[in-house]
Design brief:
5 helices, globular
Amino acid sequence: MVRGFGRAVALLRAERGMSQYRLAKESGLTQTGLRWIETADRGPTLASALAIAEALGVGLEELVRLARRAAGEADAAAT
């Protein structure tokens, strides 16, 4: 799920034409912290997941739904 969350964040960020720097700034994270989340080196806290969702203009529920879908696609590609 952590990998799916990172993929969903990166996809939404790209769709909105946002840099990692801008999303990090708007969500109150460091750029390094956001990069760790996007690359699944670390999972987000609930507070950071909510802040990211708000900065991307989606609800947390929608972001989690997209993360689950991304995680499922990654699992399917691995098999």
